[in-house]
Structure formats: structure tokens, C-alpha cells
Design a protein that fits this description.
By secondary structure, the chain is an alpha/beta fold. About 35% of the residues lie in helices and about 20% in strands. The protein has helices spanning about 35-40, 60-65, 75-90, 105-115, 155-160, 160-170, 185-195, 210-215, 215-220, 235-245, 250-255, 310-325, 330-345; strands at about 20-25, 25-35, 50, 70-75, 95, 100, 120, 125, 130-140, 140-145, 175, 200-205, 230, 270-275, 275-285, 290-295. The strands form three sheets. The chain has a nine-stranded mixed sheet with strand order 7-5-1-11-12-13-14-15-16, sandwiched between helices. A five-stranded mixed sheet has the order 3-10-9-2-4. The chain has a two-stranded parallel ribbon with strand order 6-8. Helix 3 packs across helix 12, helix 7 (about 185-195) runs parallel beside helix 9 and helix 10 (about 235-245) crosses helix 11 (about 250-255). The two termini are about 25 Å apart.
Length: about 350
């Protein structure tokens, strides 16, 4: 889906090329409507997500060969960056960095992300294949099989190359997902340090409960640099459990706000999404009593929901699109709820060919 905004359209407040920098694990989503027989062949469940084992590896080529497939530039962080890019409508307002292989899937991934308006600068690893995610649609169910492959091979050496680091310094805002802590935690810290030293907002996502469980050390090493932390209720409860805060979300949110920060000029904001329940927002500085606000989600009928998998990614993308315009937190949250509501009415993390209607 290419973005061709009306040339007469007003450029949004403070938006410029390269203002938002994202870094994560890029995956090419290969989506197709399939029959139950294909699920059975690969021992997959109709509504589930799993990491690919050796027995699943042939499924990607089989989909391309035997089914009508849609390609989407995926991976959680890349999804959020693409949504922010769609909201901003200025080509290359966003930048995305990650690792792909030198193959046809990598070319397809770069083509799709670029068509969405994102300025991609991938590390290309010739020794491993591009990360892919098979999205098998049966009715309203989706079975996803992710093969991380090259996405697991990003190196800090790429980040500090002159042309890549220039993208970092050019940006005014940063977003990285917790999944990247399993790949290149030193790259996360490098960008976090730069953000703190230059007083630019560094935003981060817990991404999954297992990050809070098994990657506690790199997560807590990154925490002092995090100005805005996103997570859903399950992830935040797991974080609280692992850190000894308990699992009550109000307590967890306040405790995270109070954690030490490198950039003491910025408050920390903690955002907890809860599916159809209100989104909770905590903010304050470590030496202050944090505030808490609750924001109801946009109402939607059950029959209008097509796919909830990209809701969290879409929320972050909408939020960031307003953050880079220096809008109040309340407006950022309202836009996040708008984009989440929009995306769950579509298949995959996709958006209309038309411009956003958020006001």
C-alpha cells in the first residue's frame, strides 16, 4: 500500500523526515486463507501463535506456491512504526532498523515497508534467511508461525556505522520493543544513552511476559533510559511479580514511575492497555507522587472485530504519531485508542488507502 498524500495537505505540527526512529525484529508476514488440512499437516491450532520448529519450516514456501498470499511488513515494532507513519502521512517521517537476510523474502519486506512510507535501513545478513511469520486464516481464526531467523542477528556494529548513526541523531523520538532485548541489548542501551544525553524521549514496550521473566537484567539495565513504557495488563502484572511489587496494576504502574531515571528533566509515563477495559496512564518523576488517569476504549460491536492481534502495536503507533507533534499525553492516548479500534476491524496490522480521520 503506497502513501500518496494530497500535496496541498497541511504538514502536521513539528513533523519532519526522520523524526521517529524505531528498532526491532523485522518479519515478513505471509498471510493466506487456508483450509483445516494445512493446519493438521503442520500440527497447528486454529487460533494460536508459535515459534517455528524444523517441522514448520516448509510452510512458508508452500503458502507462496499454493495459496493466494498477502505480504505485510511485520514484527511488533515495525507494525507500530508503520501505523505512526500512516498517521503522519509525510514520507520518511519514520525510520526503522533491524536485520533481514539477502533473499526474496527480504526484498519483499523492504519493498512493503518502503511502500508504507517508512525509511528502512536494514542490516542484511547473507548467512541467514529473512524472518517470516505465516498467518494462516481459517474463518475468523488466525494461526501464526514465526521464524525469527535473521531478525535474531542484529549487531551493534551496524547501529554505529556513520550512515545509520546519523539516522539516530537526526531523530527526535525513539521507540524499541522488548523483544529486541533478546537480540541486541547493547544497541538498546546505546540509543537510550543518546536519548538521555540529548533530552529526547525514549519509548519502550515490555512486549511479552517472558521478557519480564527471563530477560530481567537487560530490561532493568535499559529502564533508567525509558521515558515512556508501554505494556498490556498481563505483561505489567508479570513485571510486578518479578520485581516483587505484586500484580495489582495500580501499584505496578506507580512503582515503575518511581524507578531511577537517567534523564531527570523528563517525567516517566507508564501506559497499561487492557484490551476492552480502560487504558491506565501513570506519570511523574521518581521523587514525586505519580498521577493516574483512566481512558475508556472506543466502543465497538463484537461482530465488527476481525483481528485483535495488532491492537497493541496499533495503539503505540497512534500514540507516537501525536507524541512527535508534542501533543498532550491525553491526545496521544486518544489517538492510540483510535488506531487500535481501526486496526482490529481489519485483517492483520493494515490500514485503509485513505488518510486518517482522527481529529
Amino acid at each position: 500500500m503506497s502513501i500518496s498524500p494530497d500535496p496541498k495537505r497541511k504538514i502536521l505540527d513539528n513533523v519532519r523526515e526522520g523524526i521517529l526512529y524505531g528498532m526491532g525484529n523485522p518479519l515478513l508476514d505471509i498471510s493466506a486463507e487456508v483450509d483445516e488440512a494445512l493446519l493438521a499437516k503442520y500440527e497447528l491450532k486454529a487460533d494460536n501463535a508459535t515459534l517455528a520448529e524444523d517441522k514448520h519450516k516448509p510452510i512458508y514456501d508452500e503458502l507462496v506456491k499454493n495459496y493466494k498470499v498477502d505480504y505485510i511488513a511485520g514484527g511488533a515494532t515495525q507494525n507500530s512504526i508503520r501505523v505512526a507513519q500512516w498517521m503522519l502521512q509525510l514520507r520518511h517521517a519514520t525510520t526503522y532498523v533491524g536485520c533481514i537476510g539477502k533473499d526474496a523474502f527480504g526484498e519483499q519486506l523492504a519493498t512493503k515497508a518502503s511502500a508504507d512510507g517508512v525509511n528502512v535501513n536494514y542490516l542484511v545478513d547473507e548467512k541467514v534467511e529473512t524472518g517470516t511469520c505465516a498467518v494462516l486464516i481459517t474463518g475468523k481464526n488466525r494461526s501464526m508461525v514465526a521464524n525469527l531467523a535473521a531478525a535474531n542477528h542484529y549487531k551493534k556494529d551496524h547501529l554505529v556505522q556513520k550512515e545509520v548513526w546519523e539516522l539516530v541523531t537526526k531523530a527526535g523520538y525513539y521507540y524499541i520493543g522488548g523483544f529486541f532485548l533478546t537480540v541486541s541489548p547493547d544497541s538498546v542501551i546505546e540509543v537510550g544513552k543518546h536519548a538521555a544525553e540529548t533530552n529526547k524521549p525514549f519509548t519502550f514496550n515490555l512486549s511479552a511476559p517472558f521478557i519480564c521473566q527471563f530477560f530481567k537484567d537487560p530490561l532493568m539495565s535499559a529502564m533508567p533510559y525509558i521515558d515512556i513504557l508501554f505494556g498490556n495488563e498481563t505483561e505489567m502484572a508479570q513485571f510486578g511479580k518479578e520485581q516483587g511489587y505484586g500484580e495489582k496494576l495500580e501499584e505496578v504502574g506507580k512503582k515503575i514511575v518511581a524507578l531511577p531515571k537517567e534523564n531527570k528533566d523528563r517525567p516517566r509515563i507508564v501506559i497499561i492497555t487492557q484490551g476492552s477495559e480502560p487504558t491506565l496512564v501513570f506519570q511523574g518523576k521518581p521523587d514525586q507522587e505519580p498521577s493516574m488517569e483512566s481512558f475508556p476504549v472506543v466502543p465497538i460491536k463484537p461482530e465488527e472485530i476481525m483481528d485483535t492481534n495488532g491492537a497493541g502495536d496499533a495503539f503505540v503507533g497512534g500514540f507516537l504519531s501525536q507524541l512527535v507533534q508534542e501533543k498532550p499525553v491525553e491526545e496521544c492516548v486518544r489517538c492510540g485508542l483510535y488506531t487500535a479500534n481501526l486496526i482490529i476491524q481489519r485483517s492483520g496490522c493494515t490500514f485503509p488507502d485513505t488518510e486518517p480521520t482522527f481529529i
